[in-house]
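Example record

The entry below shows one chain as it appears in the dataset: sequence first, then structure tokens.
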Amino acid sequence: MRLAQRQRVSTSLDTSGIWGHRPTMRNLLISSLLAASLTLGGCGLRPLYANGSRGAVATVLADVDVAPIEGHSGWLVRNALRDRLQATQGGQGAGKRLRLDVRLEDSITGFGVRADDAVTRERRTLRARYQLVDAASGEVLLDATAAQDAGIDVVGSEYATIAAESSALERLASGISDQIVTRLAVFADRGGGRTATEAPAATPAPTP
């Protein structure tokens, strides 16, 4: 099918060399880790959020402050991220030890062209590159990407199409935020982002 010429891109991200492939399967795997972790306790394994608000993962997430993100899509993603992190922060507000920097690329591509060259279908894609930074030293602790897309039916009413595009962006912002928070949780569960006092003690070497 011939690709339509209609394309709109809004971006605050330097995408050079970053989006060479679509990490769909990787993102699905990461996103499934959080849900899977909820059932691990019954299998004799340690859940991702072990020890609740006092656990290592919750402690790291509570230290994260989300920096402002450019554009309307950035406003949606930042709010969604803060909503998800708020549960770990006990009403004390955003953490200050760690900063989450996010840059987005938001694009709409038209396809599904009729004989009169009218677009009948669109795909809205939201991509993010995010970095977890030590606020005191500026050291980048985690540098990763996330991506998600949604299909949109183009109808006769321009207003209805714009409304559908807006709804799609809200869903994408929510999905991207889920991916980012889950990736941060996995990073923290593996020992990342902890202070020296929070780091797990080294296992003593066996005595010969």
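Notes for this example: The beta strands are 7-11, 64-66, 98-113, 119-134, 140-153. The chain has a mean pLDDT of 75.
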